[in-house]
Specification:
The complex is a heterodimer of chains A (about 160) and B (about 300).
Chain A lengths: L2 E7 L2 E7 L5 H8 L18 E4 L2 E4 L12 E3 L12 H9 L8 H13 L7 H4 L11 H13 L7
Parallel strand pairs in A: 1-5
Antiparallel strand pairs in A: 1-2, 3-4, 3-5
Chain B lengths: L7 E4 L4 H7 L7 E3 L5 H7 L5 E5 L11 E3 L2 E5 L4 H6 L1 H6 L1 H9 L3 H4 L4 H7 L6 H7 L3 E6 L2 E6 L4 E3 L2 E2 L6 E8 L6 E8 L7 E11 L5 E9 L6 E2 L1 H7 L6 H14 L10 H17 L12
Parallel strand pairs in B: 1-3, 2-3
Antiparallel strand pairs in B: 4-5, 5-10, 6-7, 6-10, 8-9, 11-12, 12-13, 13-14
Chain lengths: ~160, ~300
């Protein structure tokens, strides 16, 4: 059983014939060809597959594709604007917030969500608590996010 | 992905009526709300193949939190994030925000639903104890009508609930407690956050002017095979001043009322001891020797 499912992907309409229970993670990687979103645990513990669904952070491994119908999906690829990296991406590069890179796309999505809406969590550590990193020890990540949030003027937040 | 998707089918109804009609089929399709339980099982190859009912396509179920006649009303798709962000919930039903914070990461809280937490019937549910302590009622709809069941009467055994396969949870009604109610919510896990509970107590207590207990609710998770309201202990405490003697009597009653589960997370003896400690901590917060009542 496949179904025609349509949603807005990084600002552009996307339609595909996929099984309704196919994980959004797999639809993004296999059907939409966007491999920036990574799979870590596949059970909602690690945050590597974090994307935005209608502006909220979700684990794309736990979203059946049929529930993205008609919604806005934003992936790490969608943070780039006119070929320029998002300030959060820039700061992760400058501050050494990325090492092996598997957690990085999800970590950056969670960080951007927090920068866009600091009231969504008690503090930065809670906002990033759903994203595991086995390389950095987190200090560099926190520094990257702090620096990006200082750099991002209100108009730059997107 | 260890499941074979061809063995699964999904119905995405366009209205509540259509959904309730679909639920009359035998076997009834299993509702899927936020997917935070079912999608994990699907990935692990443990989700039973068959028909599933996608609740996200039903407009009637996507309504915002409302306050009606002194009760908060959640819809079938109200998430933990919805409750956490709601200023009135934070103020009037604070245990729901404490519970929401305990449930996974923000990425889980934005998807997981209160109704799903109820129906999934895990003994370790974090949201259900807070709802039960507030005397929440569950609205169940089917093609043959609507009925309301007190959440405290919803469970009868491990994963045994009052929901028939043709019924859907369409609302949760939560009465706002008295302003002076002392509220207590504490989860004991292996770490501070994002850990499944070993023992959890959600409590609410209203004292009269004479400092006697007018109303008390004691709800435990992860101790019994389902979210459990300790009614015998409540009966021991009602009408008494929560002093040292009353606390001692309550702990003794709890020791005989609870028959804790024993599993990989904790032994029964540990659970019983922690359950008693939490009760003592909650009651001591309102004990005359501690002065004014405060939030737990």
């Amino acid at each position: 059983m496949t179904a025609k499912i349509s949603f807005t992907l990084n600002g552009k309409p996307w339609t595909g014939n996929v099984h309704p229970l196919k994980r959004l993670l797999d639809t993004l990687r296999e059907d939409a060809g966007l491999t920036g979103t990574k799979e870590g645990c596949g059970e909602g513990e690690c945050g590597a597959c974090t994307v935005f669904l209608d502006g909220q952070v979700v684990m794309s491994c736990m979203v059946p594709t049929c529930q993205a119908e008609g919604k806005k999906v934003t992936t790490i690829e969608g943070l780039v604007s006119d070929g320029d990296l998002h300030p959060m991406q820039d700061c992760f590069i400058q501050e050494g917030g990325a090492q092996c890179g598997i957690c990085t796309p999800g970590m950056i999505m969670a960080a951007v969500a927090y920068a866009n809406d600091p009231d969504s969590a008690e503090d930065m550590r809670e906002a990033l608590a759903g994203n595991l990193c086995r390389c950095t020890g987190y200090t560099r990540i926190y520094e990257s996010v702090k620096k990006a949030m200082e750099k991002m003027s209100v108009s730059e937040i997107r | 992905m260890r499941s074979y998707l061809a063995e699964f089918s999904v119905i995405s109804p366009r209205s509540l009526d259509e959904a309730l009609w679909a639920l009359k089929q035998r076997p009834a399709p299993a509702p899927i709300a936020g997917g935070t339980d079912l999608m994990v099982l699907l990935n692990a190859g443990q989700l039973p193949p068959g028909a599933y009912l996608n609740l996200h396509s039903i407009p009637e179920l996507r309504r915002p939190i409302e306050f009606v006649n002194g009760e908060a009303c959640f819809g079938a798709l109200t998430t933990y994030a919805d409750a956490r962000r709601h200023p009135e919930i934070r103020k009037r039903l604070p245990m729901l925000c404490l519970a929401a914070r305990e449930i996974g990461a923000l990425q889980i809280q934005s998807r997981g639903t209160w109704a799903g937490n109820i129906v999934n019937a895990s003994p370790a549910a974090d949201g259900v104890p807070a709802l039960m302590a507030y005397d929440a009622a569950v609205e169940l709809s089917s093609a043959s009508g609507v009925r309301s069941v007190a959440l405290a009467d919803f469970y009868s055994g491990y994963k045994q609930t009052a929901r028939r396969p043709d019924e859907l949870v369409t609302a949760i009604r939560i009465p706002v407690p008295e302003k002076e109610a002392v509220q207590y919510y504490r989860k004991v896990g292996t770490r501070k956050f994002q850990a499944i509970s070993k023992v959890l107590l959600a409590g609410i207590m209203v004292l009269g002017k004479d400092r006697r207990i007018k109303k008390i609710r004691l709800v435990y998770a992860s101790v019994m095979p389902y979210t459990y309201r300790a009614r015998a202990v409540e009966a021991v405490l009602e009408g008494r001043v929560p002093d040292g003697a009353a606390i001692k009597a309550a702990v003794a009653a709890l020791r005989s009322e609870l028959k804790p589960i024993d599993d990989v997370r904790s032994t029964a003896a540990y659970r019983l001891r922690v359950a008693c400690n939490l009760l003592e901590e909650f009651l001591s917060a309102s004990s005359p020797s501690r002065g004014e009542a405060r939030r737990g």
